[in-house]
Amino acid sequence: MLEHYFQCPYCLAEISMLIDPSVSKQQYIEDCEVCCNPIELKIEIEEGEILLFDANSIEQ
Predict the structure, then answer these.
(1) pLDDT, tens digit, for every residue of 43-57?
(2) Alpha carbons 40 and 25: distance in angstroms, whole number
(3) Longest CA pairwise span in the chain (Å)
(4) What number of other Cβ atoms are within 10 A of residue 49's Cβ?
(5) Mind listing the pLDDT tens digit for each residue in 13-35?
(6) Which of 19-28's residues contact partners 24+ apart within 8 Å by CB, and which partners?
(7) Where is 32: in which H helix or E strand?
(8) What burial letters (b/e) apply to 1-30, b meaning 16+ CB within 10 Å?
């Protein structure tokens, strides 16, 4: 597992998450552990390295 830190697009809190490097392309929604708003995550991994990590707010 890879640990990655990023900033919540809503409350700007720093969040840590574990990413499974065995899946090369990932896209899913996860709630912020601080403000509970949904964050759309897009992740691309190649050879155990994170190539792309996007954390975007979902317009509600």
Answers:
(1) 999 999 999 999 999
(2) 14
(3) 36
(4) 9
(5) 999 999 999 999 999 999 999 99
(6) 19/43, 19/45, 19/50, 21/45, 21/48
(7) none
(8) eeeeeeebeeeeeebebebeeeeeeeeeee
Helix, strand, or coil (residue 16) = strand
Is the per-residue pLDDT at 59 higher than 80?
A: no
4 is written with which tokens? 């990655």
State pTM to two decimals: 0.86
DSSP β-bridge partners for residue 15? 6
In 3D space, the residue among 33, 30, 34 whose CA is nearest the CA of residue 55 turns out to be 30
Structure tokens at 33: 């552990």
Residue 25: which residues within 8 A CB-CB, separation 6 or more?
43, 44, 45
